[in-house]
Amino acid sequence: MMIWLLVAFPALGAALLLTSGRRSDRHGHLVATAASAASFVWGLVLFFRLLARDSGDRTVTESLFTWISTGQGPGSFHVEMSLVFDPLAALFVLLITGVGTLIHVYSIGYMEHDERRRRFFAFLNLFIAAMLVLVLAGDYLVLFLGWEGVGLASYLLIGFWQHKPSAAAAAKKAFVVNRVGDIGMALAIMLMFKEFGTTEIAAVGDSVAGTAASTITVLGLLLLLGACGKSAQVPLQGWLLDAMEGPTPVSALIHAATMVTAGVYLIVRSNAIFDASETARTAVVVVGLVTLIAGAIIGCAKDDIKKALAGSTMSQIGYMMLAAGLGPAGYAFAIFHLVTHGFFKANMFLGAGSVMHAMDDDVNMRHYGALRTALPVTFATFGLGYLAIIGFPGFSGFFSKDKIIEAALAHNVWVGLAAVAGAGITAFYMTRLVTMTFAGQKRWREEVHPHESPRVMTVPLIVLAAASVLGGLLVLSDWITDWLEPVVGHTEHHHVEILGAEWPPIAVSVLVTAVVAAGVALGWFTYGRKPIASETPERVSVLTRAARADLYGDTINEWVAVRPTVTLARGVAWFDQFGLHRAVTGFVTLIGDGAAAMRTWQNGFVRSYALGVFVGALVLTLGLLAVIWR
């Protein structure tokens, strides 16, 4: 099937743009966009070829070459550079390349006046290629190659405007925090080789059944640590909001189509491991639940439009992790929400970029207001994304989020109710965002003259807005669950019991819709019917202050991880300098001083040597006489 072409197109585009120099400045953005589009078209071809196969024959493996081989017999290590195209990989390929291509098109206008535009597009292509390696990998070590490639590309793009100290610091923070998660991934791969003698994904899944439960649990927790880093889940979420320092198309690419979806993909792809460990699955549920609430609370207090959307991403990825932690009952719905979220979150991030373009790059929503008339296309498309993310009936988020909440209620009522509460908070902070940006009275500065973005930027918005509306069609006739069944297993119907009574799906939808309506109403009455101050109020509640500080995530990490590590490093350095170093140098000095003293005896004068011989002979004679005398 020539699966490798999916990766080859963007990889070749990145290589050409990075090596061709300034000669390609004029057309580099077109080359990069064409490379991403070619990968999307080829992905469509492969998808329809897969769709034409029987459901039991929808896994195609393509081995490119032997990457690592250490001989034969026990203890040998063999890794094939293999790519696997199956129903799960197919959905990710279309999302990555489809949304990624729209982001490339949008970036043509957004980065038009940046003198380093060619390099920016090269990094976008590199990001797409690395993410495709990650989702197509047939071996965990090959997956790790894409995993690290995504980390490198995110570092390059978040810090693309490295002349800004804040951007350089954000890139370093993202890189370092992700390395913590990567330790989990690396240890998991080592443990796989030790226990199973292979790191091939399919072989590892087949070997899980005969392995000790404790080993599988440790393996699942290590994979979860890796997922927390890439998907910005508690406790490794701190890098995501700072990552907004990169150009807005980067934020859309990271949040919608690539990096933060990698952790969810890892959990679902490793479903055999998590199915065998209830403890690991419970840990995934807890992490997802805590993150979806924490991200939603953070989103309620941010005045920076991109950071408010970043908190939203944390929360929505939390929903996906929660679903993935439910096992076969939730895997398909985790991917369903991942796909719909890719549509409406890319739409809203690019919409935020359009607003910033109109407002001279001002990101403070308190300086906006009444932009619905100045930016009609941006307002309409952003509004459709807003209705999708809050779960308005008929929009994509309504179907995907409701399925997760239904599965969570069937698993545990309290977990499900927490997810319902998260939906209400989502409706509140998104209503706040839309109201502060597009409604009310204008609050922008006199020198600012808002204007609609050029067509090259608004066309991607229109396409993504349409997908935000129609994405829910994937659930019709249970298509999404049937399509993913060969990979994640059969999805059972959920029986929801609350207060001893079974609730049908329509009742769950009514409950969620009522909570969402309450969130919308609260947001409107709080921000839509009152004048909004142009400056951030200083006197706020304790919870608002905590949300502004990202719920003190950085402070907690500072005390739990950074300071103890720094203290340990300083202790080791002190011991090395004043203990070990002084002991070694002291011994060396002692030997040196002794040698120096002995050198004084060798002065080259015959009389001194004769005197030494005489004294030695005298001492020897006296000693012998003493022995004889006794």
Describe it.
The structure is a single chain. This protein is mainly alpha-helical and 630 residues long. The chain has three domains: 547 residues, no CATH class; 49 residues; 30 residues. The protein is built from 25 helices and four strands. Strands 1-2 form a two-stranded antiparallel ribbon. The protein has a two-stranded antiparallel sheet with strand order 3-4. The chain is globular, with a radius of gyration of 31 Å. The termini are far apart. The mean pLDDT is 93.
Spatial shape? globular
Pick out the low-confidence regions: none
Distance between the termini: 104 Å
- Whole-angstrom Rg: 31 Å
Strand residue percentage:
under 5%
* N-to-C SSE string, H for helix and E for strand: HHEEHHHHHHHHHHHHHHHHHHHEEHHHH
Task: Describe this structure in a few short sentences.
The protein has 630 residues and is mainly α. 72% of the residues lie in helices and 4% in strands.
Structural topology:
Blueprint: H1 4-19, H2 28-51, E1 60-69, E2 78-85, H3 87-110, H4 117-136, H5 140-158, H6 165-196, H7 201-207, H8 213-230, H9 238-242, H10 248-257, H11 259-269, H12 271-275, H13 278-299, H14 305-325, H15 331-358, H16 371-374, H17 376-390, H18 396-411, H19 413-438, H20 455-470, H21 479-488, E3 496-498, E4 501-503, H22 505-528, H23 542-548, H24 553-599, H25 606-629
Antiparallel strand pairs: 1-2, 3-4
